[in-house]
Design brief:
The protein contains three helices and two strands. With 74 residues, the chain is mainly alpha-helical.
């Protein structure tokens, strides 16, 4: 629970005093971890989205075209 005098940084998630918010500098490692955490649902859904795309008409064509190009360059 946050107190009225504290708030989470929107970029790194660190709890900072409201009075010090303007001077807050995000730690690069904390920023990276927080950004990955906020993107976790998107990252987790990538495989499913890719499989669905490749199962569709356009995806099957793209897969065929890629395989053809690989055979031509090999």
């Amino acid at each position: 629970m946050y107190f009225a005098s504290r708030m989470p940084c929107a970029e790194c998630g660190a709890v900072v005093e409201r009075a010090d918010a303007a001077a807050h500098v995000c730690d690069p490692e904390r920023w990276r971890d927080f950004q990955l955490l906020t993107m976790s649902a998107t990252v987790a859904g990538f495989d499913t989205d890719l499989q669905e795309y490749l199962a569709g008409k356009e995806g099957r064509f793209e897969a065929w075209l890629a395989a053809r190009d690989v055979r031509r360059t090999a």
